[in-house]
Specification:
The model is unreliable at 1-6, 19-25 and 388-392 (pLDDT under 50). The chain has helices at residues 4-17, 73-87, 102-119, 134-144, 183-192, 211-228, 235-251, 255-269, 276-287, 289-318, 322-343, 350-363, 366-369, 373-382; strands at residues 33-38, 46-50, 61-67, 89-94, 122-132, 151-155, 171-177, 197-202. The longest helix is centred in the last third of the chain and has 30 residues, at 289-318. By secondary structure, it is an alpha/beta fold.
Length: 392
């Protein structure tokens, strides 16, 4: 991956900068978003900022740094503003990091980390990253290159190389929309990872999480911090968040979803509360024939979606070989036509959502994968609304 080591090297600067004595370089307003704070050492780099209304340099604060694929720092900050005010986070969103060369994002990481570490009083144990799409890959890549990051909120994308891992040295809260073209990637990340993580799927597409999910992400990070010793235990907060989870379980109408919620509760509150009953209920439900079938079907559907995408990528590779090109093109045309019929069904269904995700996955980034003009023209015929040009 071009520039990967450079980006990871920037993470070291990011880790060290938080140990610098905090100096409030200028009197920035509290309780409102500042669209542009220029880095003192490099004015070409800037970030959107939110300081909680009660911010004071007299205590150390949690820090959340965000990356948007189109350098929209304010969008990152707005997403977490309410949660940041409630739980005491300084939030900064890069106005420079964007999809493209990794060196651009690396420069942003270096400049922002140094500036934030010098301006504000930051708790080095409570340093978090977040990002959307390519920005999530930046966040995950930086976190993987240092032990200084406590957690990452990864929205609509995971690792820089898209390959699942089994363990990570930081906590991960992932989000994805039901029609997100990176939905299956986040589902497989959730399945593979065994260290602290959670992935929440919401109704929507390839976008930042809605306010309720953004709040849930910050609350989950608070739980993880209490479990790891990153912050003092707040028994009232633990009880409040536990009650909130129990309400979600009570409202669940899907047995398979209920099992997942019980398992997540047991994992997230282990060490904070006695979760034996919740874990036991999840285990018992999982043995019931109908629930077992639903869980098996859910896994099979994820496998089928991943397989369909991989099959298309394999056929695309065949376009580069003259003796296989026509056969590959014909099979790709059939696969696209089949997915389009399912995607255009009148009623919503898991099959329609899967077909729409697959079409978006195939059309997005196609120009980076293949140069076959006929195939790219074919993709334009099947491009879902709102997906942009094939490969854009």
């Amino acid at each position: 991956m071009p520039g990967r080591s450079f980006l990871f090297g920037a993470a070291v600067v990011l880790a060290l900068s938080l140990r610098v004595s905090a100096m409030l370089a200028q009197d920035l307003p509290r309780g409102q978003i500042v669209d542009e704070v220029r880095c003192a050492a490099d004015p070409s780099q800037s970030y959107a900022l939110y300081l909680p209304s009660n911010y004071s340099p007299d205590r150390a604060w949690s820090l959340l740094v965000g990356f948007h694929p189109a350098a929209r720092g304010r969008a990152m900050v707005e997403t977490y503003q309410a949660a940041a005010e409630k739980y005491g986070y300084v939030v900064a969103g890069s106005n420079n990091s964007r999809n493209g060369p990794w060196e651009v994002s690396a420069a942003s990481v270096q400049a922002m980390s140094a500036d934030l570490g010098q301006r504000f009083s930051i708790d080095p144990k409570r340093f978090y990253l977040t990002g959307l799409s390519g920005g999530a890959r930046v966040a995950m890549g930086v976190a993987a290159g240092t032990k200084a990051i406590a957690g990452v909120i990864a929205s609509s994308a995971g690792y820089p190389d898209s390959q699942p891992r089994k363990t990570l040295p930081f906590a991960v809260f992932g989000t994805a929309g039901t029609e997100d073209f990176n939905y299956i990637e986040m589902r497989l990340l959730d399945r593979a990872l065994t260290t602290p993580h959670r992935v929440v799927v919401f109704e929507g597409g390839h976008t930042l999480p809605p306010p309720a999910v953004a709040l849930e992400a910050i609350e989950w990070l608070e739980l993880q911090a209490m479990k790891s010793g990153g912050r003092a235990r707040d028994e009232a907060l633990v009880d409040q968040l536990l009650a909130k989870r129990q309400q979600a379980i009570a409202a669940s109408s899907s047995p398979a979803a209920t099992v997942h919620l019980l398992e997540q509760l047991a994992s997230d509150f282990s060490g904070l509360r006695d979760v034996t009953a919740f874990a036991g209920r999840a285990a018992e439900m999982s043995k019931q024939k109908d629930v077992k079938s639903a869980l098996s079907r859910e896994r099979a559907e994820d496998d089928a979606e991943a397989r369909q995408v991989n099959d298309v990528l394999t056929l695309e590779a065949g376009l580069r070989e003259q003796d296989r090109r026509m056969e590959s093109l014909g099979r790709l045309r059939d696969a696209l036509s089949r997915s389009a019929r399912q995607a255009n069904a009148e009623t919503d269904s898991p099959e329609r959502r899967r077909a729409r995700r697959i079409l978006r996955t195939i059309t997005m980034g196609a120009r980076e994968r293949v140069q076959d003009a006929e195939y790219l023209k074919l993709l334009e015929q099947y491009r879902p609304p709102g997906s942009g040009r094939a490969g854009a």
